[in-house]
Structures are given as C-alpha cells and as structure tokens.
Specification:
This protein is of the alpha/beta class and 372 residues long. It is built from nine helices and 17 strands. α3 packs across α9, α5 runs antiparallel to α6 and α7 crosses α9.
Length: 372
C-alpha cells in the first residue's frame, strides 16, 4: 500500500509542479485535481469561488464530516524585468498530499464511520482564498478541519511533524501624508512631509506591545519627492507591516497607530490617511484535534516524532476558516527539509515527507471518525 501511494503522490506532485498558476487562475490545476478525484469515486464540485474544488465521500453515515484543506496557487517571482511563476511555497506538494489522502480513504470507504470532504482552495498567497471559500459555504456540513504546510529542517526535519503550526496574525497598513510643497529656499511656506514622516517613525517606534505576543511593527516602504531637489515635498506614501500571535494585541496596535496618525498630522499641519491592505488572523485551534494529531504522528512515524508546536511569524489565510465559522481545526507542520526556504525560487524539499504526511493525515481522519 505505502509503495503504491508513494508512486502516486510523487507523480501527482511532479505533474502539478509543471503547471504553476497564480491566485484565482488555477484552471489547469483545478481540472487535474477534479479528474483525479472523480476517478476515485468522489462527488466533486468545481468552479467554487472561481477555481476552488471540493470533493466528498460518504461512508456508513454523513457525520462526522472531516475536511482536509489544500492550497493550489503558486508564487509570482520577478527577475531581470521578467515575471515567472513557480511553486516555491509547496502548494503543489500540499495538493499532492490531499490527493494521496483521498486515494487512501477511498480504498476503505466501507469502513469509514462518517464522511470526508476535501477543499482545494485558490489564492492563499494573496490571503483571499479562504474567505472566498467560506463565503461559498464549503464548511457548512463540516465538523473538523485539517490543514498543513511543509517546513524547513531548522523548524522540523523530515521524519517528524508538529501537531500545531502557530502562525502570527498580520496586516499591512498603507498610508499617505499630505503636507504642502514649497521652494527649498522658503521652507516656512511649506509643510515638509519628510519631517512629518520622521516624527511618525519616532512615535511608532515608541509603541510597546506585550512582548509575550510576539508583536512587531515596522515601516516597510516610504516614498516622497522625486522631482527637483530644490522643492520641499508636499506628499508622501508609506507602508507598515504589523504581526502578532494575538488577534486582540494586533487590534490594540492598530488603534494606537490611528491615534498617532491623527496627532502627528495635527502637530505638523499635515493630514495622514491610511487603509488596511488585507491581512490574516492568528490561529484558533482545537485542543482535542492537536492531541489527536500528535497521536497520529507518533502512531505512524514513531514515538517522539511529534515535536512541540512551532511558532512562526508567517501568516496563513487558513485561519479565516475558524475566524469566520465555528469549525474546529488543526494545522500540522510537516517536516520536509525545505531548502533554502519558502518563497525562494530555488526551493526544494524531501519528497518522502509527502508520503509521511498522507499516511499521518489519513490516520488522523480515521481517528476522528471513530471518536466523534
């Protein structure tokens, strides 16, 4: 069984790796996945939220319904003025794992005490896919949801897994400073937005978030001037990246920033506006599912192979599933020796980890069917 599933997963990953597609354009990927699932006997729905795919298989009864979510989109890279697509975050691997689980489960449908649903989600990289799938009602019949992601060797080496990958909540604020342009020889007639930005930096850096929440605030972009060097610039733009493992702490930081923008602008006779450019919430996992995931990891990979929860400053739109619904969820970190790192154009990983993941997740599905 493991040999056959290994060959299948390896082939699927190679096939999907050859057709990288960006957010909401995963047409070939979705068609490939749909064809595979139908061949296994699943009831498949496609074109959900554009390119999303769901597949359901019912055993002895409809409930409990356990869902497995995989993302499909690729990364967009730019180099030497050229744009190219590449699966450098492992979404081809994630979809391959899900199809491997689907194959394993389909072969023992008669023994399944409940149902299983696969959610192949578009647009994770732009943080819009999960919300779009929730809005389409894909979780309305689901009790438990399983997600996962490949990890680097420093976090989790091949042959081990973490039952909980603890992402950070995060958002980007983009803003504008409106001052007043003037001749550099008559600075008293203008409002220099560079001076305003300097004051803004000092005020923002004075924010002291709770250190236990892993919260960080930093400017990531600033642009002003660009014309003649003897002109005091009257307008500027900026961006701030905010991350935290705590959703409430993130909200508090944004509230403080709002007050800083108002007061700094007023103090300098300038006007500062901003808007949030999307973002993701922090995880809300089920303690029960974490314990079940740990049991499945050690049952399949061996005692001691379930490492502690992994803390990461990265974000994941998976957490909109629990933010916007009452579904219980868990998100597993898969040891895959990712190198040199996620989102690197030359990213590689240990293919053996895909088979391990499929076996662990299918074991977890069995556990949840039998214990609900």
């Amino acid at each position: 069984m493991s040999y056959n599933i290994s060959n299948y997963i390896q082939k699927v990953q190679q096939d999907l790796h050859e057709i990288p597609e960006p957010a909401f354009h995963e047409f070939k990927t979705a068609a490939y996945i749909e064809k595979e699932l139908k061949s296994m006997g699943y009831t498949v729905h496609s074109c959900i939220a554009g390119t999303g795919v769901t597949a359901t298989l019912v055993g002895e009864c409809n409930h409990p319904c356990i869902a497995v979510r995989a993302d499909m989109d690729c990364i967009i890279h730019e180099a030497d003025g050229h744009v190219f697509y590449r699966h450098s975050c492992g979404h081809d691997a994630h979809s391959s794992i899900a199809l491997g689980v689907a194959k394993l489960v389909s072969e023992k449908k008669k023994e399944m005490n409940g149902s299983i649903k696969f959610i192949f989600q578009p647009a994770e990289e732009i943080m819009l896919g999960a919300k779009a799938m929730v809005n389409e009602g894909v979780l309305e019949d689901v009790e438990s949801l399983i997600g996962y992601h490949l990890r680097t060797a420093t976090e989790c080496p091949t042959g081990s897994m973490s039952p909980a990958l603890m992402h950070s909540a995060g958002t980007i604020l983009t803003g504008k400073i409106q001052g007043r342009a003037a001749h550099a020889g008559r600075p008293h007639l203008g409002v220099n937005v560079i001076d305003v930005f300097g004051a803004l930096i000092n005020s923002v850096n004075a924010i002291r978030p709770n250190p236990q929440t892993g919260t960080s605030i930093k400017f990531t972009n600033f642009s002003a001037g660009g014309g003649s060097f003897n002109v005091i610039p009257g307008s500027a733009s900026f961006a701030i990246d905010i991350r935290s493992r705590d959703n409430e702490e993130l909200k508090k930081v944004i509230e403080k920033l709002d007050r800083i923008f108002i007061h700094t602008g007023s103090m300098h006779d300038a006007y500062i506006t901003y808007q949030a450019e999307g973002g993701v919430p922090a995880p809300r996992y089920s303690k029960r599912l974490i314990e079940e995931a740990q049991f499945s990891i050690e049952s399949v990979l061996g005692e001691g192979k379930a490492i502690s929860p992994i803390l990461t400053p990265g974000g994941e739109d998976f957490h909109y599933y629990t933010e916007l619904t009452d579904v219980e969820a868990v998100y597993i970190g898969i040891g895959a020796n990712v190198s040199p790192g996620l989102h690197d154009p030359s990213m590689t990983f240990d293919r053996k980890s895909l088979v391990d993941a499929a076996l662990v997740i299918s074991h977890l599905v069995d556990q949840l069917h039998n214990k609900k």
